[in-house]
Amino acid sequence: MLLSITTLAIVNIIESEESSLADVTECVSSNQIKGQSTATTCREELISSLQFLGNFEGLLAAPQPLVMAANQAAAKAMLLVSGLAPDERPEVHDMPSNYSGNLRHLIVEACITRNLLDTSAYLWPGYVKTSYNQAPRGVTGEMLGWSSLMKGSPLTPSLINALISVPASSLAEIEKVHEIAVNGSNDDKIAAAKIICGATLLHGWNIQEHSVTLITRLLSSPDPENRVQSECYLIDLAVFLNVLILGIATTDNVQIFSLHGMVPQLAGALMPICEAFGSCKPTISWTLPTGEELTSHAIFSNAFTLLLKLWRFYQSPMEHVTGDVTPVGYQITPEYLLLIRNSQLAHSGGQSLYRSHRRLPSFLNPRSTKPLFMDFFPKLNCWYQQLQACIASTLVGLVPGTPVHQIVEKLLNMMFRKIKKDSQPLSPVKSGSPSLSGSYIGNDPGLNLQAWDILEAVPFALDAALTACAHGRLSPRELVTGLKSLADLLPASLATIMSYFSAEVTRGIWKPASMNGTDWPSPAANLAMVEQQIKQNIAATGVNVPSLFVGGSYPASIPLPLAALVSLTITYRLDGVADRFLYLVGPGLNALAASCPWPCMPIIAALWTQKARRWSDYLIFYATRTVFHHNRDAVVQLIKSCFTSILDLNSSHVGCGVGTLLGHGFGSHFAGGIAPVAPGILYLGVHRAVRDVMFLTEEMLSILMQSVGDIARSGLHMNPPEKLKKSKFNMKYGLISLDNAMTRIRLAASLGASIIWISGGLLLVQTLIKEKLPSWFISVHRLKQESVESTGMVAMLRGYALAYFAIMCGAFAWGVDSVSPSSRRRSKVLGDHLKFVASVIDGQISIGCDWATWRAYLLGFVSLMVACAPLWVADIDLDVLKRLSKGLMSWNEEELALALLGLGGVKSMGTAAKLIVENYGDSSTHCNLCCTVPANPQPRFL
């Protein structure tokens, strides 16, 4: 995934630069063009970097799943430099895989495929280490693989298996699969679907963007807004579409579509499929090559489940609660996905999203470029509106005698047909709906209902069943058995079960269920182990874990709907079929349990650990995150632990703490048992659940300033005072490396900016720059006075840290260009902040911090803005630019002042000339300053 995404990003960067250079070539004079041609381009820098990368063989060893691909990449290079004629060369796919390939070979192949490099890279020193004469010869026997397919071999079972397990390496091979999928026989179409969803999608990073585009196109109907035509087309391809859907439904494959930005288009392709097959009678079926029957309910459930994964349906409503605000919907909605899909297609002019500047084969173009809206899918839209209503309030409006009422009765009869005749009817007394009369006994009536009709009735059936269980008219075991029968009838109903139970937990109106092992399953067998591992995971953070045991017993009780949901999930057998649906409910169950009061999530983890030991690491990690959900002090302590780990002040090597911050995963597969979770990874899992992130700005400033002091103290600690000298800032120095200290400070500031950005996004960054930073400078800071902190050097270091921190936060939020939508919000916040800065320079505002800190902040902020984000300067008001430049001139920072005005554009040229005349007179030697301002001026202290 990283090989594919990173290379695509490099393509965009190089294309953007070369396009700009081409535009400049047309506009400027020939002497200017000649001068620009000597500059190093991004393409040249890429080549230099990849050549230099060969010096780090210890970092380039391929992970085990990639060894074969790396060896094949090395073999390809070896064959090209061997001097053999093209007709003498064996196919790379058919050669033995023992050519000592590494990750650099894979990176170079990815770049060559995307025209970033040419095959002259194979001639780099040390790139090819094995000659053809030393390499083993080709394989004997029948030749299988992509070369056979390209030569016209029929799709035999052995060839199909080979193509599924080996990724395609070129666009021509992808085109061949597309031809089979469109024009082949039914069996060949199914085989093509399996091939394109196999290793080609998962490991074919050289052509992965083409794979995801092709799969999306194959799933799409030619005219989705025409319901009759669309449904006929889709139903005729039922088996083929189902194979594609199952092939991309795994967690890894969904992630690939997400990383390539294809989720909106994939969702737009799935909606017509859901609409069509959800409206079919279950009596319509298709016979698979294996002889099994495929029903419309099965195809609908597979497509619907995948669609819900794409728009993060699993996020529970409680996860979005802030304070006392009641949630009414999800952050990502089907309408939003369609809006993005329509925008993408309109922006690309109907072409594929990738390589929009280059011509792609027509078979990769979307089937339809027309916009889609929820109104085109009335059944899906109706279900979605009902989902929103269930989240917002309790159920109402079920009228006896209506079709929905009749379906509810049939569902309850099917779910609880084993209950005795004298049992009382199950009535949803809580919702105010009429009593659902009837005896819930007898045989399965064989519900012959459309999937959409079943989904519409499911919430009312759940309401009746849960209410009956709460009033003792239905045992927990009977409730869970009935829910399992409903899920077996229509697996897609798991989505409604998940959303209904989540909403009911959010409302908090149900009594807790005691997980005692009699009525509900008991977590007692694993609860102590879960608690121990949670404590071990966060031991390094200094955070205390609330005990799960009180007075020798454990408080194993959770809300009734949550108990029903977890009991339902553990009834599933862990096989390939059930996993698809558990991956829909599982993340939602974890998010819901983590949002509930302690210790709901540890109880869920203990229950599921008993069911699936292989998932214990993942579940305990979720339970560990719960400790931080409702405890602000714990979050602050975790952030401090992140700073401690990345700075690694006991080491003389700067930057080696990154491994400690992010770790190397978690789990019992590491030597020595369960490995503690790295603080950075833990915070990435915690930050979304922090309810009020505004407190982080003030805490972050405090932690950052403390870190600067720690960095300075650590330098002095390693050097005896008698070896230190005096500097002009009155700070002792000697063996202390100021460069190492500055590097660590930049590292700390970058970490702080990253945490602010991922925690609160644009709003938190704007609050920091517009409000918190000015407030911090105005306030009087009474820091602990120590020998090292009583000097001007540490105060200066603090100012630089704040400057780098502020610039990084702004770059994350607004970008450094003027193209992205977020850049339009930059001028107001940045303008207000620089007005404050100018007012301090003018003497209109007094600061409370150390003057060295303020001076370092101002010089650092302006220098970094000029050097790294010059387009920001164009957003600044001319009056503010004048005031800043005059202030810099008064501090003898002439070059920086002129560079600032130079980036202001035409509007600031008069001011720049006036400043030059005022400060240097009319001497021609001084007037040349305006023509010789350095491109990246740095203040003297840097």
Explain what you see.
The structure is a single chain. By secondary structure, this protein is an all-alpha fold. Among the domains are: 1-22 and 40-123, no CATH class; 153-223 and 231-320 and 332-345, no CATH class; 382-418 and 449-512, no CATH class; 692-716 and 737-876, no CATH class. The protein has 40 helices and six strands. The strands form three sheets. Strands 1-2 form a two-stranded antiparallel ribbon. A hairpin with a 5-residue loop joins strand 5 (725-726) and strand 6. The relative contact order is 0.04.
Short account of what is shown:
The chain has a two-stranded antiparallel sheet with strand order 1-2.
Give me some keywords for this one.
942 residues; mainly alpha; two-stranded antiparallel sheet; two-stranded antiparallel ribbon; 40 helices; 2% strand; globular; disordered C terminus
Question: Helical content, roughly?
Answer: 55-70%
Average of pLDDT:
80
Strand content: under 5%
Q: Which stretches of 5+ consecutive residues score pLDDT under 50?
A: 29-38, 134-143, 316-330, 350-358, 428-445, 717-736, 785-790, 923-942
Let me know the largest β-sheet: 2 strands, antiparallel
What oligomeric arrangement do these chains adopt? single chain
Category from helices, strands and their pairing:
mainly alpha
Beginning-to-end CA distance, first to last residue: 39 Å
Strand order of the largest sheet: 1-2
Protein name: Mediator of RNA polymerase II transcription subunit 33A
Keywords: Membrane, Signal, Transmembrane, Transmembrane helix
Organism: Kalanchoe fedtschenkoi (Lavender scallops)
InterPro entries: MED33A/B (IPR039638)
